[in-house]
């Protein structure tokens, strides 16, 4: 796997290096040693799958408050999604900046999200599934969010959401 920096410090695109033969592809989706060699101490304790039926389903923008903060590796297992990370680390030079990346099952690219960043995505087709590898146990009481169309963040989504949960539609601006 290859690790590519993004404009947000610590947010990385992780590119697969599939072994391709006449049967198909085999690719390493996570490797403690390869992450460590890239300077990333990432040991997941939870793997989750987000199955989304409709095109332009939006989930986000979420993060977990300390001490339940998470590092996440997110990839698309089916279809494609516009995936967005927002830097919410006050000491970061890119504080309150966002970065978007298209994740697809065809590319098998992934995005590594450090602690202190909000995450969300918009599906780009029907039947879009994403997999999360997370390095902290789920803590519902630590869930935090900001609205997907926060004017102070101004994410350039490819489309408005057609499907969004009431909770996600009701998050406040980040202020
Ligand atoms: C997030 C999470 C949820 N769950 C259970 C709890 C609920 O019974 C169910 C759905 O949870 P929720 O509605 O919070 O899921 P999303 O709205 O998709 O939230 C996620 O989507 C955004 C885009 C994220 O980046 C986060 O991983 C996460 O906030 O899965 C778990 O068991 N473990 C988990 O880590």
From TrEMBL:
The UniProt entry annotates the active site at 62, 132
What top-level class of enzyme does the UniProt entry assign? isomerase
Q: Which Pfam families does the record associate with it?
A: dTDP_sugar_isom
**Where does it sit, as one GO cellular component term?**
cytosol
Q: Which Gene3D superfamilies match?
A: Jelly Rolls
Name the GO terms of the biological process aspect.
Answer: dTDP-rhamnose biosynthetic process; polysaccharide biosynthetic process
One GO molecular function term of this record is: dTDP-4-dehydrorhamnose 3,5-epimerase activity
Q: Which reaction does it catalyse?
A: dTDP-4-dehydro-6-deoxy-alpha-D-glucose = dTDP-4-dehydro-beta-L-rhamnose
Q: Which InterPro entries does its entry note?
A: RmlC-like (IPR000888), RmlC-like_jellyroll (IPR014710), RmlC_Cupin_sf (IPR011051)
Q: What is its EC number?
A: 5.1.3.13
Function, as annotated: Catalyzes the epimerization of the C3' and C5'positions of dTDP-6-deoxy-D-xylo-4-hexulose, forming dTDP-6-deoxy-L-lyxo-4-hexulose.
State the name under which the record lists this protein.
Answer: dTDP-4-dehydrorhamnose 3,5-epimerase
**Originating species:** Roseicella frigidaeris
| High-level lineage | Bacteria, Pseudomonadati, Pseudomonadota, Alphaproteobacteria, Acetobacterales
